[in-house]
Amino acid sequence: MYVLIAGGGKVGANLARSLIRAGHEVTLIEQKPYRYDKLEAEFEHQVLRGDATELFVLERAGVKRPPDLVVAATGDDEDNIVICQLTREKYGVGNVIARINDPRNQSYFDLLGISPTVSATGAIMGLIEHEVPEHGLIQLLELRKENLEIVEVTVDKGANCQGKRVRTLRLPDGARLISVVRAGKAAVPDDETQLEVGDQVLAILEPGKEDELRRVLLRD
Amino acid sequence: MKALVIGCGRVGSAVAQQLQGSGWDVTVFDENEDALGRLGESWRGGFVVGHGMDLQLLREGGIEEADAVVVTTDGDNTNLVIAQAAQKHFGVPTVIVRVLDPARAQFYATKGLRIVCPTSAAIETLVGAVRQAEEVST
Description:
The structure holds two protein chains of two kinds. Chain A is an alpha/beta fold. Chain A has two domains: 2-121, Rossmann fold; 129-217, Alpha-Beta Plaits (2-Layer Sandwich), CATH 3.30.70. Helices cover 31% and strands 25% of the residues of chain A. Chain A has helices at residues 10-21, 33-43, 55-60, 77-90, 106-111, 120-131, 210-217, and strands spanning 2-6, 25-30, 47-49, 69-72, 96-100, 117-119, 137-143, 148-154, 176-182, 185-187, 200-205. In chain A, a hairpin with a 2-residue loop joins strand 9 and strand 10 (185-187). Chain A is elongated, with a radius of gyration of 22 Å. Chain A starts with a strand and ends with a helix. The mean pLDDT of chain A is 92. Chain B has one domain (2-137): NAD(P)-binding Rossmann-like Domain (Rossmann fold, 3-Layer(aba) Sandwich), CATH 3.40.50.720. Chain B is globular and about 60 Å long. Chain B has helices spanning 10-21, 55-60, 76-89, 102-110, 118-137, and strands at residues 2-6, 25-30, 46-49, 68-71, 94-98, 114-116.
């Protein structure tokens, strides 16, 4: 496949290296001269110097073919947003992935419909929450396009749902329990499943309803 | 009438002053505190120090009640992103954005943004002036 990568920093350059090793065709765009010189020594004609938010640079990189995938991996979130919009909406690229540098900018990517996104800070925070859960509710997967997320909750002593049957729980609208792991065995819960201390419960729900779910399953 | 001006450089500060002069309630945003100096001593409007990409800050600066937002930071891409948020997310009725690159300006104009491209204006003026000279000499 043909992949266009904007931004030749650590993320972009390593990605290019991996994709080339896997047999893909790659063009890497880097703006900064000192970085470009280093990259050129390694990637030769596969790296192009320029600003990937300029249309003529994108066109020289072959955006009109169009590429099977564009990765906007610069260190600037606004640039990444514009690269995604231009390649997708002007040149009809079907698959576009954006890197988010500052997690506070996530809402801009969501607002402008730029998905999927990858944020190192966000990914590490996710791992931290999984390893050291602080709020009792761990986000496992976010399906942005579908506006759903899957979360994990461990039922501890004194939790509101302890000893209750699923049908008696007042789950938030649209939320479902999809799995209960007890003593290492996963089962799909039904209305009559009774929740016990130590159960690991997976639930699917709309983002934003975590607090409601927390109140039902954990504590007020 | 309330206006937000994001980016207080030469253009942004002058736009803010003129709007205030004609009776608008104006709040200016800039990352750099020193930019307040550009607004002069008679400035009576608001001034918020911070990045225009900060949605919470835009809210605190009153974007939800704004009749107009003018986006004039020194970055084209920053301007385009902030302008889209002002229009799509906050529903500001009039959003005007400065974009220096004519190619990007043209594309985003087709996406419904109101764009001012000083580069295109300069090109037109320069070419026009030279053509006029041509007409005079022939």
